[in-house]
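[step 3/7] fold_predict: job queued, chain A
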Amino acid sequence: MLPAEPDCMLCERRHLCLPVVRDDIDAIVAGSVRAVAAGDTLFLEDETFASLYAVRSGAFKTCVGAPPQRGRVTGFALPGDLLGLDAIDSGLHRCQAIALQDSEVCELPYDQVEQALAASGMLQRRFHQLMSREIVRDHALMRLLGQRQAGARIAAFLLGLSERALERGQSGAELRLPMSREDIGSHLGLRIETVSHVLTRLRASGCLRVRLREIDIIDKPALREVAEGLAA
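[step 4/7] structure written:
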């Protein structure tokens, strides 16, 4: 059974999502909440683009290629994030989106989104902000992959997750990772053994407390020094 129709103005993530500026955006998402079970695919690479998807709950990873051997994790989408923006230009999804845990998305048919954008300057500005956010995130990933030290990559990744948690009204110090170490390694261009080794080292240094996928940031200034290459 599908969940009840969403009320965007009551959504806790509306400040991160598209509907924040327009009440009647409900007409787009009403009746289009989709449940996606952990491990299931929301859309496939090269699939025809028809809708954007706002993550309502849970989390997704986006991948190119065929994981795990030839694939690469390109990003992680959390509640409030939009999936599918990269498909607007070509009309084809350039990656696949896989649920990391039981999740829900609000489906936004893009033809209706375009109509709403044409009718609202405020919505246009919000949409451009979301596009800009994706560009900034891509640039941050390129800078991250440019770091030679594995420790710097992982520290910066954790700090980025901390900032995203704070944006969502959650603790920036107590992270509950929806992704596996293998996913993190694929995203950062590191082997899973390297990810585990670095986390162990950061725990030993007093930066983190690590319990499987529960990571508490104990010393954020020290972790930031590692991310900036100022500490081993």
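[step 5/7] annotate
The chain has a mean pLDDT of 85.
Helices lie at 26-29, 110-119, 121-145, 150-167, 181-188, 192-204, 220-227.
exit 0
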